[in-house]
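Note to self: keep these together.
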Amino acid sequence: MCRLGGDEFIFILPDTGADGAAQVASKLVAAISRPYLIGHNELSTTPSIGIAIYPEDGADMETLARNADVAMYQVKRLGRNDFRFFTREMQAHSARALMLSSALHHALERDQLSICYQPQVSLQDGRVIGAEALLRWQHPDLGPIAPAEFIRIAESNGLILPIGAWVLRNALAQGRRWIDEGLPPLMMAVNLSAVQFRHPDLPALVDQIVDESGFPADRVELELTEAVAMDDPETAVRVLDRLAARGIGMAIDDFGTGYSSLSYLKRFNVRKLKIDQSFVRDITVDPDDKAIVTAIINLAYSLGMRTIAEGVETDGQLDFLRLQGCDEVQGYHFSKPLPAQAFADYVRMIEARCGRV
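Structure:
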């Protein structure tokens, strides 16, 4: 056994196969995760263990250590306190992630990133009242890269901060152009990653970008996932209060998929709860999803918050949400995410249909 540094250790088990390695790893997880009483505090550790087998996973120490590291980070992504063997699939994933990480460094300067806007529609009168800014990456050789894949990479290599600032700056500038072109003032919803939200300069950066854009601060809505908000709720309360004091609205995204403490939720300076599409998808047939969506809408109403449901695709879903008192919706039932000009054309069409143009 040796210590690499920090909290990383290597165990070498001579003449041991996969079964023996798994047995040792299980014992390590059980031993390390036991709570310890230090002073008056009970502390717990959640180990993550990656396993590489010689010679299948590498013929030298450097390769074995690298592949065990890949397996360990897979455990971290899946929640920690476990072990996992290295696989060829992980190796392929790791190679692609490395390639995308390198390509992402040049994506901004090479004009490969763009923003699409998905309409957010009021259930009261059918008007478009907002737009969610959604980042897209079109690689010249690999084609479109899914946000779920490259956002995670950008968070791990630190690029999420400049990319996130670029998205906010360009989305608000576009919102200002729409106002200048005569569109009704819309809410502009922009997603925040965990790394952005935890950065100490976030409130100052948002202030600066809002001032530069000329877009009304009270029309800005930053979306934060429930899991990130609850990771450090005391800090979240302070950051949300600072943003709210500037007039910036906040929405809790993917609500219902994480674990919320209601005592903190009522302290959050939040304007809106966003109902995750995983609950919306089957609300016409699944009684559990019906109950969850209804409970979220009632909870938001009791806390003075609005609700928006994402992933709405059918008349049945729309009818149920309207009946339960949901305020806003977005999804393919109305429109897919659109480039800026197509979005403006869509808004004008809806305004004309409503007799307001």
